[in-house]
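for the recovery benchmark. tokens below, seq after
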């Protein structure tokens, strides 16, 4: 996938309200220029949340994965997004386990 090569100027990705299927590519974690938002909500994305998304350390406004069919646990690496200040949505999925204490660092 060449998704991770798109790092130079994009500040946000809005791919919500589609019929996207499959898993979230771990290469999204390489999109280090993202500072505004990553919105993948209201799709049919499945599988686990890639821990590499924690590498989006400059993300400040919105991390939105709600209304998919994601499974597994919430990666503790998401707590590395310490610039994050606003909207964090994981609701309406099938996530299990506990909420990682590292999310308190956000």
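predicted aa per position
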């Amino acid at each position: 996938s060449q998704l991770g090569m798109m790092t130079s100027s994009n500040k946000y990705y809005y791919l919500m309200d589609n019929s996207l299927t499959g898993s979230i590519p771990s290469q999204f974690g390489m999109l280090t220029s993202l500072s505004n938002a990553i919105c993948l909500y209201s799709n049919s994305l499945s599988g686990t949340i890639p821990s590499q998304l924690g590498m989006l350390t400059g993300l400040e406004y919105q991390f939105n994965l709600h209304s998919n069919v994601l499974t597994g646990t919430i990666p503790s690496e998401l707590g590395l997004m310490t610039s994050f200040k606003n909207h964090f949505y994981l609701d309406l999925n099938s996530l299990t386990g506990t909420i990682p204490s590292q999310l308190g660092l956000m």
